[in-house]
Amino acid sequence: MKRALIISGGGSKGAFAVGVIKDLETTYRLSFDTVIGTSTGALIAPLAALKRLDVLEALYTSVTTEDLLEAQDLGASIWNGNSLNTANGLGSRVRQIYTDDFYNQLLASTAKVYLTTTCLQSQELVVYTTDPAPAAGTYYRVEKIKSAEQFRRAVMASASQPVFMPPVRINIDLPGAINPGFQYVDGGTREYVGVGIALEAGAQELFTILLSPRQNAPDPTTYKGLLAILLQTVSVFITDVADNDLFAPRQYIHFINYINQVKTAMKADGIPDAALERYFNSTNPDYQNLIHRSPVKLHIIQPDTALEGGPGGLVFKPDKMQQMIQLGQIALQNYVAHLKPGETDWA
User: PNPLA domain location, by residue (predicted)?
Assistant: First the structure.
């Protein structure tokens, strides 16, 4: 069974995903054919693909906001800059972790990594991947990564929240690149969680880690100041995008699973395979992909209530992130405990 690991955006809240991944790989010994990361998920995905759990945990428990982001003068940033913060600290860590050797090991591994970005100029969702033969995206453009430096830039671009962090020119030094000056930012601007990408990559079992809460309690805070209002607006935006991103894939999965249930029932009633093929035959390739696909399992692990880290997860506190790792482990344990017999073959 082809498995996918999908990690949403959320800044420092990515520590929750680290906790989930830690138990998926150490307790349940799961490996993934496809790993899809958005924003902070793009920082996590390559390390998860190569099972570098020690490096992953250290990254999300040993850094502070000041280690990653450097605030710039607000007035100057609004009128002349391209972000409220620089991200030199984050950039140096990306270069330290994702070396050329790491990139070559990633290419040699069986797991294919997909990193989501948003192009400011074309407004497209652009997915950069290590997959040598990726499927063409139906609602996004796929770019095969051609060098270690392009890989690092794609990670940075996916993690760069617009306004708060500077956009990245992913293809600026790539020989023969079209539009090398185009700027890329957080993939979560268009796709908070890449479930649709995993489905188009052919995944049959999807482990989706959402960093947004299952329940949003009303916040009595009165927001004052441009920055506070902007940050809370980002939080509202993330919740909305998360709901929208999951709606269509869930319907797609429900339809596929329903068709498979109908076929099983028809066979049990004695309808021969030749008749089934005739009933479910279609010359439309879109229908072929639906009616001849194996059942799909979708697992969603997310916190019950809002994680710390502030709107957008731009506050990095080691003690809080350590707690979020533990919350991720607990959330996975609770999810597994509520599974019905036969719902998985891994727990």
Answer: 5-199
Distance of CA 331 to the CA centre of its chain: 18
Residues in the chain: 347
Confidence band, pLDDT 50/70/90 cuts, at residue 72: low
Could you tell me the residue ranges of all domains in the chain? Answer: 3-224+295-338
Torsion of CA 281, 195, 114, 126, to 10 degrees: 90
Question: Catalytic residue positions?
Answer: 39, 186
DSSP state of 110: S
Cα separation of 324 and 330, whole Å? Answer: 10
- Model confidence band, residue 283 (pLDDT cutoffs 50, 70, 90): confident
Residue pointed to by tokens 């800059």: 81
Geometric angle at alpha carbon 57, from 89 and 106, rounded to 5°:
80
Compute CA 129 distance to the chain's CA centroid, rounded to the nearest angstrom: 13
Greatest alpha-carbon span in the chain: 74
Distances from the Cα of 128 to the Cα of 136, 173, 196, angstroms: 12, 16, 15
**What Rg do the C-alpha atoms of the chain give, in angstroms?**
21
- Across 119-143, average pLDDT: 94
Q: What is the phi-psi region of residue 11: left when phi exceeds 0, alpha when psi lies from -120 to 50, beta otherwise?
A: left
Cα distances from 123 to residues 118, 135, 181, 190, 206, in angstroms, run 6, 21, 14, 9, 27
To which H or E segment does residue 128 belong? strand 125-129
Q: Which of 96-105, 167-176, 281-290, 298-307 comes out lowest in average pLDDT?
A: 281-290
Does residue 92 sit in helix, strand or coil? helix
Quick one: which H or E segment has residue 318?
helix 318-337
- Distance in angstroms between the alpha carbons of the first and the last residue of the chain: 15
Report the 10 Å Cβ neighbour count for 79: 8
Is the pLDDT at 143 greater than 80? The verdict is yes
- Residues forming beta bridges with residue 297, ordered by sequence position: 205
The CA–CA distances, whole Å, from 196 to 138, 227, 260 equal 9, 33, 20
